[in-house]
Amino acid sequence: MADQMQWANALSTRPSLEAAVTDVVEQAVYSLTAPADLGLVFISSAFASEYSRLLPLLAEKLSIPVMIGCSGLGVIGTKATGEPQELETVPAISLTLGHLPGVNVQAFHVTAEQLPDLDSSPDAWINVIGVQPSPAPQFILLSSGFSPRINDLLQGLDFAYPGSVIIGGQASSGGLSREISLFCHDAANGLDQQLYREGTLGLALSGNIVLQTIVAQGCRPIGLPMQVTKAERNIILELDETAPLVVLRDMIASLSEQERILAQHSLFVGIVMDQFKSSVQQGDFLIRSILGVDPSVGAIAIGDVVRPGQRLQFQLRDAKASAEDLELLLKQYQNQDYLQPAAAALMFSCVGRGQSLYGQSNFDSQLFRRYIQDIPIGGFFCNGEIGPVGGNTFVHGYTSVFAVVHPISGEA
């Protein structure tokens, strides 16, 4: 019988770190019927004073070649009943283990100072990351919440590793930078029980594995798509040869009273990612924040560089739009054909979603389970979510990024 890929996740809300570690290891190991090749651990910031003890405690209970993880304001996992659970602002640990026959697993850590210039060759990026581009690796990235040049790193990875999927999130905390931690153990690559406060921790998975991504940005378009006719860096000076503030005021005047109220605090811009697509809809946009306006010239500043010729459309975000956006993407995933069934999922959700958006717990994870059932799910609440839109990788906000893990073939 072929050696099959297996995954397991365990959650614990025990207030003692020792008890919580024992709890998740026993549950996860019991669920696997083969040795674990990889571990992913997410720990809530309620344990911030004890972060340095996490990897040693895990090593006492679990022999595993590679493990990465980080801190989060909340963690996500799977209860013994198989139901997903999002635990926000309470002491909790989520541990995911994977038995991965036919998969090469390699961890790495990079800082902003190590990154090449953006005009460097692919080889310069490959030398820094230390991962071969073929077969195309699947990357999981965990970054410190204050990591500079994270956008440069994503752009460099897209450039040097064409065909690779890159997902992940920025570690979060209760507000203090010292509560941000990244955890790594990969003795074969010189990373033995490392704790980092900055930089980006990466995991490269190559071989018999593929990550299918669902990037739910939680917005719905309003008004009509428009073309940027004049711009400087992140400042839009003209939309369809009209001052953006004039366009925006006219559009808001056409909205319902409820939408006008929502636009006061939940208005965004969606940049069309495929400029050749004639008709755009939800899922075709990269969502970016509106940072400010200049009434003297009618300009709008947004949270990304914009170029003349690009199309964009204003967007609204609320609980209803977020739910509909995620459900639409889940239906699209469900309608695709896969050679092998899903084995597990990872979830990276913004700290601004969860209870604060929906007014209830477990909304995104339970909606996910309604469409993709009977697989373990693990993850955490992020300070920025990493995932692809339109063929390139970005850091998002107010987003839930899912990576659904599939083996490529049924045999190792």
UniProtKB/TrEMBL annotation:
Q: Which InterPro entries match?
A: FIST_C (IPR019494), FIST_domain_N (IPR013702), UCP018953 (IPR016741)
Please give, as recorded in its UniProt entry, the membrane topology of this protein: Multi-pass membrane protein
Give the UniProt keywords, A-Z. Cell membrane, Membrane, Transmembrane, Transmembrane helix
Q: Which residues form the FIST C-domain domain?
A: 244-389
Where are the bilayer-spanning segments? none
What is the annotated localization of this protein? Cell membrane
Q: Where do the FIST domain residues begin and end?
A: 35-243
Q: What is this protein called?
A: FIST C-terminal domain-containing protein
What species is this protein from?
Umezakia ovalisporum FSS-43
